[in-house]
Design goal:
Layout (H helix, E strand, L loop, with lengths): L1 E5 L4 H11 L6 E6 L10 E5 L5 H4 L7 E4 L5 H26 L4 E5 L11 H16 L3 E6 L3 E2 L7 H15 L11 E2 H14 L3 E6 L4
Helix pairs in contact: 1-6, 3-4
Protein name: Oxidoreductase
GO molecular function, one term: NAD binding
Pfam families: NAD_binding_10 (PF13460)
Amino acid sequence: MRVGLIGATGLVGNATLNQLLADDAVNEVRVWARQPAPFAHPRLHWNAVDFDQLRGQARCDGLDAVLCCLGTTTGKAGRAGLVRVDHDYVLAIATAAKSVAVPCFGVISALGASARSPSHYSRVKGRMENSLQALGFPSLEILRPSLLLGERTETRCAEDLAQACAPVLNALLPGPLKRYRAIGADQVARDLIRVAKQAEPGINVRFLPLT
């Protein structure tokens, strides 16, 4: 299997990269990032690109799936920056993949994503999902995790507080409410890779963790 990955330096993206490289069923991992490769690996093909030129610079030919783990926050990037990263860049890499008939596109969205949401963040995620659905991939995998757990390189005070409370809060969310539980980045990465391998036809919106 040959997989493309964007967002590999983020929390979920880094976990996805490590798991793909550890998977003997994956012959190639083609990464697009702003910065040079942090390490070398015989199956890793790292491409430093200008994200504002993704459609022209991201070569997706020959790939079985492209996985997108891009994401930022309004606090870090501002309202316009959030749209650029979480919608425009995602659509750009998806368009590049669709133009060379990549059969499966997988993306990390968010619980509560809706183009009609009063929340700017959730609204942008919802618009992103709608834009991807319009491209018509044979298999589109949209994963909607709740709060992400893991060690980030940046500080997000609200998330740090939520992570500290997660064990108690998760215990209060049994059965059908488990989709609202905080979830580890490693688990999200496992689920993303799993659905990419299965490449189920159609538009598939997944709540995590997968059963």
